[in-house]
């Protein structure tokens, strides 16, 4: 399905925007989710992870979470992306997901993309998921490659294309505290430039 068709179907809906929409995307282990939560808290916005939307979809359709990961049908992606777009249209949120900026399009007031060196990402993933460094390195590589192929096939989108983002944050040499402070500062600057917050 063409992404434009998905978006155009929802553009006719009368949804009143009640606040800014910030999208946070990036590669595995780059710190995007950690910073997205910090941004949401600092700006008093709702934090939404695309994974939560997919989980809710599974529960609503009475599919066990164990079975759900093996299904991953395009219809599930389309449905979760529609929900993501509706949240972006309403605003007052921070959307955390690989396609968040692509799906929200013009409804996103601030688009951030997080990058990080391969080794630092692996160390972070290892610490978070209690894995060895080598296992985390492999896990990140597999996940990134699967997502790249999946979204290229689904929407013909290269998720590593950073041309649509307002800011690219390299968190390789940052502590978590530095990363969060920097992300909040940049987000406020972008929002102040685009809209009054």
What is the strand and helix layout of this fold?
Elements: H1 3-11, E1 21-26, H2 32-43, E2 46-49, H3 50-60, H4 65-71, H5 74-90, E3 93-96, H6 100-104, E4 110-115, H7 118-129, H8 133-155, E5 167-170, H9 176-194
Parallel strand pairs: 1-3, 1-4, 2-3, 4-5
Helix pairs in contact: 2-9, 3-5, 7-8
Characterization of this structure:
Helices cover 58% and strands 12% of the residues. By secondary structure, the chain is α/β, with parallel strands linked by helices. Helix 3 (50-60) crosses helix 5 (74-90). The longest helix is centred in the C-terminal third of the chain and has 23 residues, at 133-155. The radius of gyration is 17 Å and the shape is globular.
Total strands: the figure is 5
The largest β sheet comes out as: 5 strands, parallel
Lateral arrangement of strands in the main beta sheet = 2-3-1-4-5
What's the end-to-end separation, in Å? Answer: 36 Å
Beta-strand portion reads 5-15%
**What radius of gyration results from the CA coordinates?**
17 Å
The global form is: globular
The CATH topology comes to: Rossmann fold
The CATH superfamily is identified as P-loop containing nucleotide triphosphate hydrolases
| CATH class call | Alpha Beta
């Amino acid at each position: 399905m063409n992404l434009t068709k998905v978006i155009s179907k929802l553009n006719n809906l009368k949804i009143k925007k009640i606040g800014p929409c910030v999208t946070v995307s990036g590669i595995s282990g780059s710190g995007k989710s950690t910073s997205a939560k910090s941004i949401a808290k600092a700006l008093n916005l709702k934090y939404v992870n695309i994974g939560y939307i997919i989980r809710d979809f599974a529960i609503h359709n009475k599919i066990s979470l164990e079975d759900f990961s093996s299904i991953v049908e395009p219809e599930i992606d389309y449905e979760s992306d529609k929900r993501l777009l509706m949240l972006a249209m309403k605003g007052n949120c921070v959307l955390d997901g690989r396609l968040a900026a692509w799906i929200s399009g013009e409804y996103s007031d601030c688009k951030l993309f997080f990058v990080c060196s391969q080794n630092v990402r692996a160390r972070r993933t290892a610490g978070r998921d209690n894995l060895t460094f080598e296992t985390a390195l492999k896990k990140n590589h597999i996940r990134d490659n699967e997502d790249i192929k999946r979204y290229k096939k689904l929407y013909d989108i290269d998720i590593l294309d950073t041309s649509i983002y307002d800011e690219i944050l390299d968190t390789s040499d940052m502590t978590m505290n530095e990363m969060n402070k920097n992300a909040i500062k940049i987000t406020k600057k972008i929002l102040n430039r685009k809209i009054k917050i």
